[in-house]
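Field reference: sequence -> structure
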Amino acid sequence: MNSNSLLGMISSIALFLPVALIIILKLFSNRSFLALATCYFLVAVQNLMRQGVLGIPKSIYQTMSLVDNILDAPLMLLFLIFFSTSALMKKRIMTCIFAFLGFETIILAVYGFNVKAIRIILGPDIALIMVISFYFFMRNVRLSVANPKSLGKAVMASSVFISYAIFSIVYIFYYLAKDVQYRVDAEFIYYLVSILAVLLMSLGILIENKRIKKLDELKHTRKELATIYGEKKVAAFKKDSRFLNS
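Structure field:
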C-alpha cells in the first residue's frame, strides 16, 4: 500500500465522522445538515470504492464517482443555506441550486454521462461554493470576535472555504494537467485537505450543537410559560427578559 492509498483510506474513514455526529446529535432533521451528511457519505463510499475496499466493479465505481460530482454543488449549496440570515439570502441560494441543476442538465445532455462532462461541471461548482462559503466565513469570523455564539458557524464555514479553495488547485492539476505525476500529487493533496476539512467540520458541528440545544431549551421554556401565563404575558416577559433574549 503506497502513501496515496493509505491516506485515501484514512480520508475515507474520517469522512464518516461528521455523518456519525449528525446522526448521533439528531441534526438530520435540519435539511442543511442532512445535505451535508449525504454529501460526505457519498464521497466516503466513493473513496472506499477507489481504494478497492468494497470490492465493487469498476463500472459501478465510475458511475458512483460521476453521481457524486454531479450532486456536490446542489448538496453543498443546500448546506450553506444554514448560514443564511434572511429569507432573501435563502431564496438566492435556492435560485443558485436550481440554476446549477439546469446547467448540469444541459452539459450532460450535450456531452453525455462521462468524465468530460464532469470536468466541465466541476470548474463552476468549485468556484461557486468557494465564493459563497468565503462570504459566510468572513461574516461569521467577524461576528465570533464579539459574539462567541457565531464560533460554530465560523469553524464550519472555514472548513468549506479552505477545502474548496485548495480543491480548485487540485482540479487544475488533476483534470487539466497532462502530467501523470501531477495527478498523483493532486490526489495526495485532495486526501490531506479532506481530512483537515472533516476535522474542522466535526469541531464546528459540536460547537454549533451546543448553541442549538440552548435555543431549543429557550423555546421549551417559552412554551411552558405560555401554558401557565398565556401568550400575551409571555411576549411581554420575553421583551423585558435578558435571559430569553440572550
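Note: The chain has one domain: 3-208.
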